[in-house]
Amino acid sequence: LILSLGLGAVAVPMMDVVQSILRWTHDISSAKHSAVWACCVWACDCVLTLAIIWKVPFTNIDWESYMAEVDGVLAGEYDYAALSSPTGPIAYPAGFCWFYGLLRFLRLGTFHAQVLFAMLYLATLAVVFRIYRRANVPGWLLALCVLSK
Question: How many CB atoms lie under 10 A from the CB of residue 87?
């Protein structure tokens, strides 16, 4: 392989180029660069999550069902057999009802609820990235966390 450096051509053995690329690839994917990977992957997922919230039309099917179930609990009905929604009987634990009850109490609209859930997701992702980094895994594995969902 011949590289031109402006001062003339320099012959570089092909094996040296390949070894240099392999060393760089190994280095950039090592655990010592996992912080860079974590920041880049997390930032990309932030942009993607916000783009989804902004551009993808929201379907109210689940939200309306959740709120119907929560309204039953907030009205004093604690018998799971009696709680249902337009999509069927309740299938979630009591903590779900109380959490969504808090959302109902705060009178959050669907957009604000989506933003809240995006923040919870991104915070959870940051914690998972921190755990991966403490385990000294290669940084590229952090991208798989996002791609696997």
Answer: 14
Place of tokens 């092909």: 14
- pTM of the shown model: 0.72
Answer yes or no: are the C-beta atoms of 37 and 130 closer than 8 Å: no
Given a contact cutoff of 8 angstroms between Cβ atoms, the answer to whether 19 and 26 are in contact is no
CA atoms within 13 Å, Cβ hemisphere of 79: 2
By DSSP bridging, strand 9-11 and strand 84-85 are unpaired
**What is the structure's pLDDT at 109?**
83
Q: Are 14 and 2 in contact (CB under 8 A)?
A: no
Contacts of residue 74, defined as CB under 8 A and 6 or more positions apart, other chains included, come to: 101, 104
**Residue holding tokens 């959050």?**
108
Determine the pLDDT at residue 48: 93
Q: Which two tokens stand for residue 78?
A: 């604690």
Q: How many CA atoms lie within 13 A of 14 on its CB side?
A: 1
User: Secondary structure of 66-124 in the HEC alphabet?
Assistant: HHHHHHHHHCCCCCHHHCEECCEECCCCHHHHHHHHHHHHCCCCHHHHHHHHHHHHHHH
Beta-carbon contacts of 14 under 8 Å, excluding residues fewer than 6 positions away, are 1
